[in-house]
Amino acid sequence: MGLIIGLDLCDAYTQVSCYEKEKTWTFPTIICKCKNEEEWYVGEEAYARNLVGNGILIDKLLNQISKNGTATIENVKYEAIRLMELFLERVLKLPQEEYQTEEIDQLAITLPSLEGKVMDAFLYCADYLGIPRSKVHIISHEESFVYYVLSQKKEIWSNQVGLFDLSADRLCYYELKVQRGMQKMMVVAESEEQEEAFNLDILENPPGAKMADKILSSCAERLLDRKLFSTIILSGKGFARQDWAPEFMRVICPRRKVYVENALFSQGAALRAADYLQEKTSYPFTCICEGRLKSTVSMQVVYKDRVSQLVVAAAGENWYESKSTMEFILDGSRNLEFVITPMDPKKKRTETVELDGFPQRPPRTTRIQVNVGFLSDSVMALSVRDKGFGEIFEATDAVVRREVRL
Fold first, then answer.
1. Secondary structure class of 381 (helix, strand, coil)
2. Strands of the 367-376 sheet, one edge to the other
3. CA distances in angstroms from 168 to 128, 197, 202, 215, 341, listed in the order given
4. What secondary structure does DSSP assign to 229-270, as a single string?
5. Dist CA 260 CA 155 (whole Å)
6. What is the CATH number of domain 143-266?
7. In angstroms, what CA-CA distances link 382 with 95, 155, 192, 325?
8. Among 89, 233, 395, 397, which one has the highest count of C-beta atoms within 10 angstroms of its own C-beta?
9. CA distances (Å), 201 to each of 11, 26, 167, in order?
10. Strand, helix or coil at 358?
């Protein structure tokens, strides 16, 4: 059996966890090329090579991809995607060498936020690494948080769950709640970067630590006020130790469980990766978070003389992986109607797509192909193409393309 890997990748740090394995690797997200050498180094070894003056250091690899960045080393220009390929190749060698197998059954990469261009880049990296795209999944930190929490005992998530993630460059608060009483359990996770972030270097002196404790305490009082929590989780380098934050701990501890888990996102990603291998999911719930659709898209169709709603994409589906191709025969209509149903059914609405430029034909003599995909969790992209009708009416070049906000 091959490896099932969860990889948490941020501009500041990278963590790697394997499903049902105890070891987790944590290191800075940097890559270094030594002068007059072909070899590349990552993490702490990259820092070491740079410190002795023999290496050229490149950081902020995610940001480089987002901005189409490049780096020139010894008169050779490297595209951001190429740097990420080299970085991932060396990162994945760590578990491969540890567990003596090169085979990867599933790889889930979790990111602080999702951007289509960056997600595309990781699939190009998978091609370079020789990993089939079907085995690579890009998910958000919010989704990793959901899978980590829902893999725990029910008492952990019986009420709301809060997560404070304090790393070198950000303070982010996550919140999860389970909604019951419906046909299918729904889990909703949200997150928000906090303006109160601070440099972790201030924790090294008593006055700085006291100020950081005061900042976090105020933040916690505001975020947790009048809410019922079963659990608070602390994650990130800033919580490797908690002795600097006595007031913050006093605020978050009363009447709730408090845990520290510094590898939460990579472990959550590994759990998600493992679930892709199951015929039937171990997590039978609808997940609403970044990376998942927050609305259901459907169409009213007639099948075997019965009117029904055809679900094109359901709330909770991964928008990046949700793609469909359908064919219909028009019953005299010159438009298509898509019903958008968000979590609040009162906001349900219909979006009409006019088939401008399509040929005029009698009812039931026009076959169309509808391709649906998503540019984000809030934008649906679709194309409608005329396929004619057998030998009676030849297909034309007529096509309509639209972007629909959900």
1. strand
2. 324-329, 367-376, 379-386, 399-405
3. 31, 9, 11, 16, 40
4. EEEEEEESGGGS--TT-HHHHHHH-TTSEEEE-TTHHHHHHH
5. 17
6. 3.30.420.40
7. 40, 43, 31, 10
8. 233
9. 18, 19, 11
10. coil
Please give the mean pLDDT across all residues of the chain. 94
Report, in this order, helix, strand and coil percent for the chain, each rounded to 5.
30, 40, 35
HSE-CB of 15 using CA atoms within 13 angstroms: 24
Beta-sheet strand order (sheet of 349-354): 306-313, 295-303, 335-342, 349-354
**115 - beta bridge partners?**
none
More confident residue, 170 or 145: 145
Sign of CA dihedral 17, 18, 20, 22: negative
Of all residues in the chain, the percent with pLDDT exceeding 90 is 84
Whether 53 shows a pLDDT value over 80: the answer reads no
162/8 Cα distance (integer angstroms): 19
Q: What is the CA radius of gyration of the chain?
A: 25
pLDDT tens-digit profile of 365-379?
999 999 999 999 999
What pLDDT does residue 117 have?
Answer: 94
The letter for the amino acid at 235 is S
- The amino acid at 183: Q
| Mean of pLDDT values over 207-233 | 95
Q: Is there a shared CATH topology between the 3-140 domain and the 295-405 domain?
A: no
Which residue, 287, 272, 284, 325, is CA-closest to 135?
272
CATH superfamily membership of 295-405: Substrate Binding Domain Of DNAk; Chain A, domain 1 (2.60.34.10)
H helices present in 52-185, as ranges = 61-66, 80-98, 116-129, 141-150
Query: Of 220, 205, 296, which is closest to residue 258 (Cα–Cα)?
Result: 220
Q: Per-residue pLDDT for 182 more than 90?
A: no
What are the sequence ranges of the domains in the chain? 3-140, 143-266, 295-405
The pLDDT value recorded for residue 288 is 96
Taking CA atoms, 4 is separated from 38, 92, 97, 127, in Å, by 30, 11, 14, 18
**What does the alpha-carbon distance between residue 147 and residue 157 come to, in Å, rounded to a whole number?**
11
Q: What CATH topology corresponds to 3-140? A: Nucleotidyltransferase; domain 5 (3.30.420)
Instruction: State pTM to two decimals.
Output: 0.93
- Asked if the model's pLDDT at residue 143 lies above 90, the reply is yes
Cα 90–chain centre separation: 22
Average pLDDT over residues 71-75: 88
Contact 398, 387 (CB under 8 A): no
